[in-house]
Amino acid sequence: MNSSVIVFPGSNCDRDIAVALEKMQFKNQMVWHKESKLPKSDLIVVPGGFSYGDYLRSGAIAGKSLIINEVIKAADKGCLILGICNGFQILTETGLLKGVLLRNKNLRFINKDVNIKIINNETKFSNKYKKNQILKINIAHNEGNYFTNSNHLKILNNENLIAFKYCDKNGNINEDSNPNGSLENIAGIFNSKKNILGMMPHPERMMDNLISNTDGANLFLSLLK
Amino acid sequence: MKFTVTVTLKKDVLDPQGKVVLNTLQNLGMDNLKSIRQGKYFEIDMNDIDEEKAKKKVDDMCKKLLANMIIEDYKVNKI
Asked: Given 3.30.1280.10, 1.10.3720.10, 2.60.40.420, 3.10.180.10, which CATH number is that of B2-78?
């Protein structure tokens, strides 16, 4: 499977995701944001970091970059797109995913391992997980507080477009297990065609028991299926 | 030709920064405060073209980049 990782000035999880993809046998290429053509890709990853130093709004400037036009075209043709953390923020700024990531409710940058629950395991990104499976996974963000209008929230629920929700270690989804104030504890969403996933947690950081755990590996294995 | 643009969060969007500023001001003894909403301010200097055209361009800038229309409102003023 061919993958591309888009690199912006200020991206800082681009190497991590590349290592994760290569470990899972993806043929990966790094693509600089000034490129106007994408290599042939089955999967495009918009990585985490602080593209353009989060100037204006996180993801706003990267969302208008040259390469993003190509990402939008590829997405329309059904290419799989994964946006992680700042990548999720960028995808919302482009309009590929609806809603917005607001500042964390407690106004603090949060870097910690949290639990998330698999809500929809019937997608190309999540089929190797079990429904309601609980993962332990790292989050590291200042703007992860997902917000959308009530109409879109209804669609997210009715069409099963919520990928993950924050929970505690027993799987309880409530205010106490919500790290950033996100609407309905949402940690990741799909677009309506389910070929685009945006998520705040970092699966690429959970690929090796030596430094964390391997809870992120099944996301990549799902894509390879 | 100069314009100013003010971008603020929509009324129904929670503004935690504004709230913290409000709390701090109250701690400083400032009373009679009802609420504070924090926003962004831009000064845009444009070539001297037709005013209507320039206004339209600034409007376009707001919609395309300066404001996120899901959560923010903007106001344009000519100065």
From this structure: 3.30.1280.10
